[in-house]
Specification:
globular, alpha/beta, Rossmann fold, N-terminal domain of TfIIb, 11 strands, binds S-adenosylmethionine
Length: about 325
């Protein structure tokens, strides 16, 4: 993490001040340190440049941790499938398998080939409208942020799609965050490969209990990050506490009448922020003034399944063909 973050941070558990002991710096950033809360004595380390502000009391369903190494182990036990996945020309694979090959290449540290495999997979996994609508929302945020200064904090950054776009196209520093330290370790290597790591800090925390002081965040973004976070009411109240500027959220919404997807989404417990009306109501209830910008609709299909890996899937939703409304939620 970069030094400028220190003055924005506090103890996520009790909001106390932090006393910092920095043991290693590299290239203008803190590589290794300990931040100790002067109030409750909780300790938060910085390791491999990643600041870890997780609190032990919040349950975390960290899918990155749960699935880590699973694919490589499976291929180790099934060498014939590994050969069919890894040793054939990329364009001989189904799109889902191209994507899984990209994940294996990433795990092996072969980022250039992983990038090529993922680049080939996406047009086969998503409809042209899905990709165009998504691209347009990220471009919309970039245009809006051109005039701003100060760091951009990105929430639930996952595979860093928006962070990558922001770091490439904007001059200001970017902070990638996720409650999965494993996701951020992967992101560090990915950003290093892309030559973008210099501009990005990595911070691990649960979005429902962030380590930011009241009003410390001027610009918050997220790319499809909200629906996956549990307790959306608490989440939006916590974000209201820390954001004194604007929250830009790339979002997509399902139609109210889309029974098949709605049933599956409800069963997965993801409903509130995947439907426009309930999302806007939750923002308002948490004290935000919110508007919908750059709204556009695009056809979406379930992502096709793997042909080699027992029908493994990529995205859980949609479960049936639908039309999604894409937009940026602008909340102040
Ligand atoms: C689908 S990704 C979002 C896509 C991502 N923003 C991108 O641009 O590639 C969702 C991420 O949210 C993270 N997440 C889920 N619950 C969280 C929470 N309570 N706090 C912080 N991150 C969370 C997951 O670890 C996952 O990486």
């Amino acid at each position: 993490m970069h030094d400028y973050l220190i003055e924005m941070l506090e103890c996520p558990a009790c909001h106390g001040k932090l006393a910092w002991t920095i043991s290693e710096r590299r290239g203008g950033r803190i590589e290794s340190a300990e931040a100790r809360c002067v109030g409750c004595a909780a300790s938060y380390p910085v390791r491999e440049g990643i600041a870890l502000f997780l609190t032990p009391d919040l349950p975390r369903n960290d899918l990155w941790e749960q699935t880590a190494g699973r694919l490589s182990r499976y291929l180790g036990e099934h060498p014939e499938i590994e050969r069919q996945l890894m040793d054939v020309p990329l364009d001989a694979l189904a799109p889902a398998d191209q994507f899984f090959r990209a994940l294996v290449l990433e795990e092996r540290g072969n980022y250039a080939e992983a990038q090529a495999a993922a680049g080939l997979a996406y047009p086969g996994l998503y409809t042209p409208q899905y990709l165009a609508c998504h691209e347009s929302q990220m471009a919309c945020i970039v245009e809006q942020l051109r005039a701003s200064d100060g760091p951009v904090i990105d929430l639930a950054s996952g595979r860093c799609s928006l962070v990558e776009v922001l770091a490439r196209r904007l001059g200001q520093p970017v902070v990638a965050t996720d409650f999965s330290p494993r996701a951020l370790r992967r992101d560090r290597q990915w950003l290093e490969f892309l030559g973008l790591y210099d501009r990005v800090s990595l911070l691990s925390f649960d979005a429902r209990r962030t380590p930011f002081r009241d009003g410390a965040v001027k610009t918050l973004t997220t790319n499809l990050g909200l629906p996956n976070i549990a307790e959306p009411g608490n989440l939006l109240r916590e974000l209201r506490r820390v954001v004194s500027g604007t929250f830009w959220a790339v979002s997509h919404f399902y139609a109210e009448g889309d029974e098949v997807n709605a049933t599956a989404i409800h069963e997965a417990g993801l409903a509130p922020l995947l439907f426009r009306r309930s999302a806007l109501e939750l923002f308002a209830a948490a004290g935000w003034q919110v508007e919908v910008v750059n709204s556009q609709k695009g056809r979406a299909l379930p992502t096709p399944r793997s042909e080699l890996l027992g029908g493994a899937g990529i995205d859980g939703f949609p479960v049936a063909e639908t039309v999604l409304e894409w937009c940026v939620l602008v909340a102040r």
